[in-house]
Design goal:
The complex is a heterodimer of chains A (328) and B (302). With 328 residues, chain A is mainly alpha-helical. Chain A has a single domain, classed as Formate dehydrogenase/DMSO reductase domain (Formate dehydrogenase/DMSO reductase fold, Up-down Bundle), CATH 1.20.1630.10. Chain A has helices spanning 6-20, 41-64, 68-92, 111-135, 139-165, 170-173, 179-198, 205-229, 234-237, 239-262, 267-297, 299-311, and one strand spanning 319-320. The longest helix of chain A is centred in the last third of the chain and has 31 residues, at 267-297. Chain B has 302 residues and is of the alpha+beta class. Chain B has helices spanning 2-5, 39-48, 93-98, 101-104, 132-136, 163-166, 188-192, 198-202, 213-229, 275-298; strands spanning 25-30, 74-82, 116-124, 142-144, 150-152, 173-174, 181-182, 208-212, 236-238, 251-255. In chain B, strand 4 (142-144) and strand 5 form a beta hairpin. Classes of the chains: A mainly alpha (328), B alpha+beta (302). Chains A and B meet through helix 1, helix 2, helix 4, helix 5 and helix 7 of A and strand 2, helix 5, helix 6, strand 6 and helix 9 of B.
C-alpha cells in the first residue's frame, strides 16, 4: 500500500474538487442510492393503467352524449387495459403468490397502496361497464359501475407519477410537480388515440380531440419538467431514457398531426395516427422509468444538489460539526 | 399535507405500544476508532444467517463488500486520502488532504502512515425517525418496533420493491432468488432477549456502541468535543439531530470528513415529506384530465 493507490488518489481529488466547487465527491464513484428492482412490466403498466383510466372517462362522457359506438370502443379499451394491469403488477413482485398482501391496509403515505385499491376498483367496474356496453349484460350493476370506473380512472391515470415522485431518486422526486401532468397527458393521449383508431370516423370526434389535446399536454409537460429539473434532467436526455424520450416525442407529435390532418376523413390515417400517439405515450413512460435508473446510478445527482442546498443555506444537512454546549 | 399531520417525532413509537414501549435503541458508530477489522460484518452475517455475497477483489482499498444491501447489513468503508508531510504544523489531516496539490507538486509524504490517511467506517441501516422505506411499504411488512427500530416482517413482505428506491441511503434491497426485501433489524431477536446486537458485541474497539439513544447521543456529544479540541476539524456528528431530513436516526455516526466521502448522502431527506405536494399535483392533473374529457365530449360527434 506504500504505492499511491490510483482510486484513493481519485477519491482525494474528488474530495478536493467538491471543496473547490468543481464537482461532488463520492466513495469510489459508487452510487449512493439503490437502483429500482422493477422490470419491464412496470412501464408497460404505467401506460396501460393510464390508458384504462382515461378510456373509462372517455367512455363515460361519450355515454352521456349518447355516442354509443365511441362509448363501446372506449369501454372495451378500459376493460382490457385494466384487466392486463394486475397480471403485470403481480408478475413484477418478488413473491407473486403474496399479491393479496397489497390489500392488507390502506396507506396514503404509500402511493402503491392507494394504487392497489384504485386498480382493485378499476378492474371489476370497467369489466361490468364493458359487459353492459357490448352484451347488454348486468345493466343495473353497470349503472353504478360506469361512474365508478370513470371516477377511479382519474387517480388511475395520475397516481403512478406520485408513486415515482415519492422516492429518493432525484430525477423522479424533484419532478413531483410536473410528473402527474405528464402522466395525465399521456393517459388522455393514449385513450383518445386507441378510441380514435377503434371507432368509425363519424363517431370518433371526441376521441381525436382527446388524443390531440392529450398529446399537446404531454409534450408541454415533458418540456416544462426538463426545464425545471435543470441539471437533474440530464438522465432524461442521455442514454436509453434520452432515446426513448426523443422517440416518444416524435411519435406523439407525428401521430397527433396525422390525426388532426386526416383522421376525420381516412380511417387508415386514424388507425396509423392512433397507434403513433399510443406508442409515443408508451415511450414517454418508459423514458421516465429509465431516467430514474440512470439518476440513481450516478452519485453526483444525489450528492451535488444536496451539497448545494446546504451551501445555499436551504437545508442544514445531516451533519453537525459544532458540539452542543450543554453536552453530556 | 396528510403526511405532515402524521409527522410525529418517531411515528407509532412509543405511542402505539403503550406499556410495551421500550426506550429507543440505536447505534453510535464512532468511526474515529474503527480499525477496519470487519468483525461486525462477519458477526452480522453469522448471527442473522445472511447468504454469502462473494464479489471477488474490488481493488477499492480493503473494501470488497462495497455497499449495504439485502445480503450485507454492515459494511466497512475504507477511504484512503493522501496526506502531505507536516500535517501536525497547524493543519488537521482533513485540511491537509484538501490541500493535496502539494503532493502532486512533489512534496514529501508523512512517513509513518505512508502518506495515506485512512478513514474507516462501519455503515448500517440508519433506523430513521422518519423512515421512507416504512412509509411507502404497501403491505405493512416494514414496521416500527417497540424499540423504535425499523424492521421488515419477512412473512409479510411480497417483494414489491418500493422500499428500495425510497431509501435515501441505498440501504435496503431485494434478495436475488428470494424476492423479499432485507436489511438490518438491529438484531430485533437479540434485543428481545436483552442482548446487544451481534455487530456491537463483536466490535473490538467500541467503534460500534449500542444502547439507549439518549445516552448514546450524550456520549457522542462528548466525543465530538474531545476530537475538536484535539484539532480534528473534520469531525462531525451525522444524523444525530431531530431537525435533519430524516428526523434524526437511531443509528448515527461520528465522521472525520464529509459524509459523501464515505458514500453517505450529505442531506438525506425522507421523500414522503413532500408527498402532500405530490398528491396535490396529481389531484390537479386529475382535474385537468376530467376537464379535458368533458371538453372533448362537448364538441361535435364526428
Amino acid at each position: 500500500m506504500s504505492e499511491q493507490p490510483p482510486l484513493a488518489a481519485a477519491a482525494a481529488a474528488g474530495a478536493r474538487a467538491s471543496r473547490d466547487g468543481a464537482g461532488p465527491s463520492s466513495y469510489y464513484g459508487q452510487a449512493v442510492l439503490k437502483r429500482p428492482v422493477w422490470t419491464w412490466e412496470i412501464p408497460v403498466y404505467f401506460f396501460l393503467g393510464g390508458l384504462a383510466g382515461a378510456s373509462a372517462g372517455l367512455a363515460y362522457v361519450a355515454g352521456l352524449r349518447r355516442n354509443r359506438r365511441l362509448e363501446r370502443s372506449a369501454w372495451a379499451a378500459a376493460a382490457l387495459a385494466a384487466a392486463a394491469s394486475p397480471a403485470l403488477l403481480v408478475s413484477d413482485l418478488g413473491r407473486p403468490e403474496r399479491f393479496l398482501n397489497m390489500l392488507r391496509l390502506f396507506k396514503v403515505t404509500s402511493p402503491m397502496s392507494v394504487g392497489s385499491w384504485v386498480v382493485a376498483a378499476m378492474v371489476p367496474s370497467s369489466a361490468v361497464a364493458s359487459a353492459d356496453a357490448w352484451l347488454g349484460a348486468l345493466p343495473r350493476l353497470a349503472r353504478v359501475a360506469r361512474p365508478g370506473a370513470a371516477l377511479a380512472g382519474l387517480p388511475m391515470s395520475t397516481y403512478t407519477a406520485v408513486l415515482l415522485a415519492n422516492t429518493a431518486i432525484p430525477a423522479w422526486h424533484e419532478a413531483r410537480g410536473t410528473l402527474p401532468f405528464l402522466f395525465a397527458g399521456g393517459a388522455a393521449a393514449s385513450a383518445g388515440a386507441v378510441a380514435a383508431a377503434a371507432t368509425p370516423a363519424a363517431d370518433a370526434g371526441p376521441a381525436r380531440r382527446l388524443a390531440i389535446g392529450g398529446a399537446a399536454a404531454e409534450l408541454a409537460a415533458a418540456a416544462l419538467m426538463e426545464r425545471r429539473l435543470g441539471e437533474l434532467a440530464r438522465p432524461y436526455r442521455e442514454g436509453a431514457a434520452g432515446r426513448l424520450g426523443r422517440a416518444g416525442k416524435a411519435l406523439t407529435a407525428g401521430g397527433a398531426a396525422l390525426l388532426a390532418a386526416r383522421g376525420r376523413r381516412s380511417r387508415a390515417a386514424a388507425i396509423a395516427g392512433g397507434l403513433l400517439v399510443a406508442g409515443g405515450a408508451l415511450c414517454a413512460r418508459w423514458s421516465v422509468f429509465r431516467a430514474g435508473f440512470a439518476s440513481a446510478s450516478d452519485p453526483s445527482f444525489t450528492v451535488g444538489p444536496q451539497r448545494a442546498r446546504i451551501e445555499r443555506g436551504e437545508a442544514r444537512g445531516g451533519s453537525r460539526k459544532a458540539a452542543r454546549s450543554q453536552a453530556g | 399535507m396528510g403526511a405532515k399531520l402524521l409527522r410525529t417525532p418517531t411515528p407509532s413509537w412509543p405511542g402505539s405500544y403503550g406499556d410495551e414501549a421500550r426506550p429507543r435503541k440505536g447505534f453510535f458508530t464512532d468511526t474515529s476508532v474503527c480499525i477496519g477489522c470487519k468483525a461486525c460484518e462477519v458477526a452480522c452475517k453469522e448471527w442473522n444467517r445472511i447468504p454469502g455475497s462473494p464479489r471477488g477483489f474490488s481493488g477499492r482499498s480493503y473494501d470488497n463488500t462495497l455497499a449495504l444491501g439485502p445480503d450485507s447489513w454492515r459494511h466497512v468503508a475504507f477511504v484512503e486520502q493522501r496526506v502531505p508531510a507536516g500535517v501536525a504544523d497547524g493543519a488537521s489531516p482533513a485540511e491537509a488532504a484538501a490541500r493535496g496539490e502539494a503532493i502532486e507538486a512533489g512534496a514529501p509524504l508523512r512517513e509513518d502512515a505512508g502518506g495515506v490517511r485512512w478513514l474507516m467506517a462501519s455503515d448500517v441501516c440508519k433506523h430513521c425517525s422518519h423512515a421512507a422505506c416504512l412509509e411507502v411499504c404497501p403491505t405493512g411488512a416494514l414496521f416500527r418496533t417497540e424499540y423504535g427500530t425499523v424492521v421488515v416482517q419477512e412473512d409479510v413482505c411480497n417483494g414489491c420493491g418500493y422500499c428500495v428506491p425510497a431509501c435515501p441511503f441505498g440501504v435496503i434491497g431485494r434478495r436475488e432468488g428470494d424476492g423479499r426485501a432485507w436489511k438490518c433489524t438491529l438484531c430485533y431477536d437479540r434485543l428481545k432477549d436483552e442482548r446487544e446486537p451481534a455487530c456491537a458485541q463483536a466490535c473490538p474497539t467500541s467503534s460500534i456502541q449500542f444502547g439507549d439513544l439518549d445516552e448514546l447521543r450524550a456520549r457522542a456529544e462528548k466525543r465530538l468535543a474531545e476530537l475538536r479540541e484535539a484539532g480534528e476539524s473534520g469531525a462531525q456528528l451525522y444524523l444525530a439531530d431531530e431537525d435533519d431530513g430524516v428526523g434524526g436516526a437511531g443509528a448515527f455516526f461520528l465522521l472525520l470528513d464529509e459524509p459523501e466521502v464515505y458514500g453517505l448522502p450529505p442531506d438525506p431527506v425522507d421523500a414522503t415529506r413532500e408527498l402532500g405536494s405530490a398528491w396535490a399535483a396529481a389531484g390537479a392533473a386529475a382535474l385537468a384530465l376530467a376537464a379535458g374529457l368533458v371538453a372533448a365530449a362537448l364538441g361535435g360527434r364526428g
